[in-house]
Design goal:
Blueprint: H1 14-56, H2 58-65, E1 69-74, E2 79-84, H3 87-108, E3 114-119, E4 130-131, E5 134-135, E6 159-160, H4 178-188, E7 198-202, H5 208-222, E8 228-232, H6 233-245, H7 249-256, E9 261-265, H8 274-289, E10 293-298, H9 310-317, E11 320-324, H10 329-340, H11 350-359, H12 364-381, H13 387-393, H14 395-401, H15 407-418, H16 432-448, H17 453-459, H18 465-481, H19 483-497
Parallel strand pairs: 2-3, 6-8, 7-10, 7-11, 8-9, 9-10
Antiparallel strand pairs: 1-2, 4-5
Length: 498
């Protein structure tokens, strides 16, 4: 009997069996890596899709964004494939949403350099997309027998297109948006408003869409059975074209003007469409003469809408134009605290909330998105939320929002505040009157600039990074128990950010 018969059976040694098994293990490992990458892409897409739903509205999102399938990502070229079921839908999404999708993916994943939108290579059978009952890829009138289901702006339900999560109860108000909020609540009340239409003006991500949906919900609660419709200007134009194509303009007009409350978002996208502008103008006149209510939102004032004819500008301006200013620091704090109430299982330190509120200042959507991403990462990995984790995981958002405050500027401001000589920032002196201002300056440098601990240390006389870490942690701790220190830091933050 051969020795091999005693080792591993079948006459083969353990080493030989291990060698045979290695390719199998390698294949399984590669498969696991690919599965994890697919899961990560799917998780990122879920966040991006949810953000686009808020931007575009549930109807437009459901028709064009929801059917997108995430394909493969090529790390060498930085190209991510997104698939749609038909040529028409792929071309439509590429024409209108390519820039938004590309930007969203670049924010979510810095390694994505370009997004490619194409038809799925296997053309999987998927439900045909419909808008108001009309197939999105239809190229001509449908047979008369089918037309009862193709009327645009279908209003079988009393309330159409509203997101149930966007209510007044979930909207955080402050000095930056108080006029718009009060006007929105007045527009939703039973009493006839003194102004009509209401025009909400504000930059991207400041809450216009949220207020539109909130008006719809409040009006529906005040008037059960009222017919309410929310849509984007882009969808209005699409439905208008579809109605003309299917010879159903009379039905389109009748249904549109039959609503008690019409909410139109992103009105700036109606620019340059003469026939659509004309129809929208007639719709405004019909609603106003019937005592019905109209609320529109845009990212600029009516007078700044280039390519809009004067008659339409006059109608849009004849009510109340309510401006929504960028959220100030106090409002950003309130928004984060309000949002944080949903995540009672996750502890978020006060210094992290302060850091996010001060650093993410471009718009509210990015602010809330940053908090959501941070908490989700902490929950999925089991790591505690900290200032360091926020800096590591929100790099793209933070760098896009930070004003370019320099360490030199911070040192100069701190020295003026504490009345110490500028040379003390780099000196070796250990007197308390010098050390504390120096530590405050290091803390502010970490909070207000993208510089690393070693880089900050070099600007303070070539100090080691561990000295900077100690200073940052010490000031963080002092702020929680020393009101004077917290007041000093708040004052310096205001002065540096003004």
């Amino acid at each position: 009997m051969k020795m091999d018969d005693f080792v591993g059976g079948g006459g083969r040694g353990a080493a030989a069996q291990a060698a045979d098994a290695a390719p199998g293990r390698k294949g399984r490992d590669n498969a696991m890596i690919e599965d994890q990458e697919a899961l990560d892409l799917a998780a990122d897409w879920a966040d991006i899709s949810q953000g686009l739903k808020k931007d575009l509205g549930p109807q437009l999102h459901s028709q064009w964004i929801k059917p997108i399938q995430v394909g493969s990502f090529c790390k060498e070229t930085g190209t991510l494939d997104l698939f749609l079921p038909t040529e028409f839908s792929a071309n439509w999404v590429a024409d209108r949403f390519a820039d938004r999708l590309s930007l969203a993916w670049k924010i979510a994943r810095s390694e994505v350099r370009q997004v490619r939108i194409t038809v799925h290579p296997r053309r999987r059978a998927m439900p045909e997309l419909r808008m108001g009952g009309l197939p999105a890829n239809d190229t001509g009138p449908m047979p008369a027998a089918q037309r009862q289901s193709t009327v645009p702006l279908s209003a079988d339900a009393a309330v159409t297109g509203l997101d149930p999560s966007l209510t007044f109860a979930e909207f955080v108000s402050g000095s930056a948006n108080v006029l718009a909020v009060n006007a929105a609540q007045r527009m939703a009340a039973l009493e006839t408003p003194q102004f009509s239409p209401l025009y909400l003006k504000g930059a991207t991500g400041q809450g216009k869409t949220h207020l539109l949906h909130a008006i719809g919900h409040a009006y529906a609660a005040a008037r059960p059975g009222a017919r309410i419709f929310y849509c984007s200007a882009e969808r209005f134009m699409i439905e208008f074209v579809q109605a003309m194509r299917s010879n159903e303009m009379l039905e389109f007009k009748a249904r549109l003007r039959g609503f008690d409350l019409l909410l139109v978002d992103d009105i700036q996208f109606i620019i340059g469409k003469a026939s659509t502008q004309e129809e929208f103008l007639h719709t405004i006149d019909a609603l106003m003469s019937a005592g019905k209510r109209l609320v529109v939102a845009a990212d600029r004032a009516p007078q700044a809408l280039d390519g809009v004819e004067q008659r339409l500008l006059s109608r849009l301006s004849m009510g109340l134009v309510a401006d929504i200013q960028p959220a100030d620091i106090d409002l950003r704090r309130k928004i984060l605290e309000h949002r944080l109430a949903r995540f009672t299982a996750t502890q978020v330190p006060a210094d992290v909330i302060e850091f996010l509120a001060r650093t993410i200042n471009r718009n509210v959507r990015e602010l809330v998105g940053g908090l959501n991403k941070l908490i989700a990462y902490a929950q999925l990995t089991g790591q505690p939320v900290s200032l360091q984790l926020a800096e590591e995981q929100l790099t793209d958002i933070l760098s896009a929002n930070r004003r370019r405050i320099t360490i030199d500027e911070i040192q100069r401001m701190v020295c003026q505040f504490y009345r110490v000589d500028r040379t003390e920032m780099a000196s070796k002196r250990r007197a308390r009157a010098v050390v504390r201002p120096r530590q405050v300056a290091m803390y502010l440098a970490k909070v207000l600039t993208p510089r690393s601990y070693p880089e900050i240390g070099r600007k303070f006389g070539g100090r080691d990074h561990s000295t900077v870490i100690h200073a940052v942690r010490l000031i963080e701790e002092l702020r929680t128990r020393d009101a004077d220190m917290d007041g000093d830091v708040r004052t310096l933050l205001r002065q540096l950010e003004d």
